[in-house]
Each structure stands twice: as C-alpha cells, then as structure tokens.
Amino acid sequence: MRVVVTGSTGAVGRRVCARLAEAGHEVVGVDRRSSVRPAPGVELVTADLAVTDLRRLFEGADTVVHLASGLRPQETGSDPGHAIPAVAQRLLAALEDSKVTHLVVLSTAMVYGAWPDNPVPLTEEAEVHPCPDFRFAVRRADLERRAEDWGRGRPERVATMLRPAVTVAEEKPGGLARLLASAEAIRSEEGDPMGQFLHADDLAEAVVVVVDHRPVGPVNVAPDGWIPAPLMAELGGPVPRLRLPGPLAVGVARLRWALGLTDAPPGIQPYTVHPWVVSNDLLRGLGWEPRHSNEEAYVAGHEPGAFDQLDARSRQILSIGAACVVVVGFLSGLTWLLRRLGDQQTDGRD
After folding, report:
1. Which residues of 122-156 are buried (b: 16+ CB within 10 A; e: fewer)?
2. Is residue 165 a contact partner of residue 292, using CB atoms and an 8 Å limit?
3. pTM score, two decimals?
4. Is the C-alpha dihedral spanning 25, 72, 31, 301 positive or negative?
5. Whole-angstrom Cα distance, residue 22 to residue 208?
6. What is the Cα–Cα distance from 119 to 274, expressed in whole angstroms?
7. Which range among 189-193, 207-211, 319-323 shows the weakest confidence by mean pLDDT?
8. pLDDT of residue 177
9. Rounded Cα–Cα distance for residues 214 and 104 (Å)
10. Preceding peptide of 240 cis, ω within 30°
11. How confident is the model over 209-252, as pLDDT tens digits?
12. Could you say which of 3.40.50.720, 3.40.50.10050, 2.60.40.60, 3.40.50.2000 is the CATH number of the domain covering 2-309?
C-alpha cells in the first residue's frame, strides 16, 4: 500500500514513517524541512502544504496520514493551530481529485473538552465539546468535521480521526506538555488534574494499526489508565505553584498571559482542573498495545530544571516568594486597570 505522510520530519512523523515502512508499506514523507535523513524505505519530499500542488503528491496513494497540523510553541502567541483550516481545505480539495480511499488525521483528546461532568474515562461515543477559549482544541474539532465530511456519502472512503493524549518523546517533550506544565503553575481550588501521557513510539504504532485496519471515525490513543493527581504532583517534582479560588485563578492566568509571563494561553486553564482522560478499548480491540505506561511516558518527556536540584527549605522559600510575586502582580495589574477605567470615565464626562 502506498501511504503519504504529512509532517514526516517531526518527532511523531519520523516514527510513523519508519514503522509504516517496516510494516511493508510504500511510504512517502512530506514536510517543509529536508534536513532529516529518512528511514530506510521512506521517500522524503520537501513541500509546503500551503502552496504545493497536492494533487501531484497524492498520485498513486491509497492512504494519506495527515500529521502536519501539530501545535507549535511559536503559534501560541496568537491563535494555536491557526493554519489548520486553510491547509485542511487544500488537502481535502486535492483528495477529491485523487484515488485515495483512506484519510487519517491527527486530532487530540482535547476535543472532548475539560468539563466537571466528564465521565472517566471518555470513550469515542462522548460528545465533541472543546473548551471554547482554547483555540487549538477548537481547530482540531473543526479538522475532524472536515475529514468526516470528506468520507461521508462515499462508501469506498474511510476517515479515521486519532485522538491522542498528551504526546511526549525523549528528544522533544511536546508543545502541549510544555503549555500544560506552564499553566499548572497556577492551581485552581476547583480541582486537580489527572494525567495521561502517550509516548510518541506508541502513537506511531497506533497509526500503523489504523492504516492496516481502516476504522471509521474517532479512535482514542492513550496508555492504560491515568495518573492520579497526587502522583502527578510527585512526578512533576517540587515546582512553585499557587493555589487560588477558581475565578481568581482564571484572572491570574489571564494577567500572566497579558504580561508575557507565560506561554500558556488562559484558555488552556480548564484542562488543568477538570478531567479529560480517555479510554483505549477501541484501539486495543484492533490489536494495539502500549509499550509505555503513563508514568514512563511522563518521565521520558520530563526535563528537570534547576529548581529540582534545590533542597527543601530553598524550594519552600522560592515557592512562597513566587506566590507573593504573582499575587502582588495581579493586584497591581487590577489597580492599574481600575485606574485606567476611571480616567476614561472622567475624560468622557469632560
């Protein structure tokens, strides 16, 4: 089978191409970068999906695996995943004129949203309801809808949407993992997150399984179970955290973002409070088995910092200091905002 893989030089893409080639498929990797040496049996094509003639790339292909819409840290300053709709539109338009019958898109478990009443774990039958202020999850939900529309009404077409947990690898913790870690510096009293972490090797194996079995619709990808909140705190190590009432935590998160003190947009905050862990029963039923537990994946993608090396007293002092700085910064920002609003009202009366 001829398989075209977009985003083929990323941490996940390299693994996917290598696994597909090992499984006997004819693999064409597509990416904007060409500095990475392809795995044996993989043809690498340098192309930008936003401008390249995709119809030519898909000639003779049976399956397209679309990985190229991943979250990138440099995009978080404006609209995470902003390029997803435009690229997806071009890709699906090209698929209309091709003989491709199977489309696999990389989505995220975040499309379920993080809500207080979420079942634990979430199955593929759960409603797609991303938290509206976190645009990355909203964009991924839109990508899924577009893929479903492509496959609808044509019995020979199959659209598979992979919904992985937070994906990490030794050489690259991953954009989502970094954003969540940054956001968790401010904890809400509403709850503590359960953790679910997927190793990139296991995600690559999942891609091979769905390429071979062609399941229709969404497929969750995650290790068995999840990490309870206390163990998450233990694995994360001693880092400065401030626990605040829910509304105040949201306000502090927005202020940190506005002042450039964090790369985590405030819309991600619900994902650090409410559950959104998923079941892997469907994927296991197809023969997939994770090689890494949640804990193993987390440790593999965790980058210990200088704070981890301090003694307990030093960490306590820094944590208290960090909490004071955040509170003072928030109050100062609130005072400035109120004064500015007062000045505007005064100017309006004048």
Report:
1. bebebebebbeebbbbbbbbbbbebbbebbeeeee
2. no
3. 0.83
4. negative
5. 10
6. 11
7. 319-323
8. 84
9. 9
10. no
11. 999 999 999 999 999 999 998 887 777 665 556 677 878 888 88
12. 3.40.50.720
DSSP helix/strand/coil, 199: strand
Burial of 5 (0-12, 13-18, 19+ CB in 10 A): buried
- Which helix (DSSP H) or strand (DSSP E) does residue 246 occupy? helix 246-258
For the four alpha carbons of 173, 165, 140 and 20, in that order, the dihedral sign comes to positive
Q: By the 8 A CB rule, do 151 and 102 touch?
A: no
Of 121, 134, 204, 123, residue with least CA distance to 169: 204
What percent of the residues of the chain are helix, what percent strand, and what percent coil, each to the nearest 5? 45, 15, 40
Return left, alpha or beta for 214; rule: phi > 0 is left, psi -120 to 50 is alpha, else beta. Answer: left
- Picking from 171, 167, 188, 321, the residue whose alpha carbon sits closest to that of residue 249 is 188
Helix runs in 152-245, H state only: 175-183, 200-213, 229-236
Give me the percent of the chain exceeding a pLDDT of 90.
53
Retrieve residue 212's tokens: 């071979």
Query: Could you write out the DSSP letters of every residue in 61-129?
Result: -SEEEE-TT---GGGTTT-TTTTHHHHHHHHHHHHHTS---EEEEE--GGGG---TT--SSBPTTS---
What span, in angstroms and rounded, lies between the C-alpha atoms of 202 and 198?
7
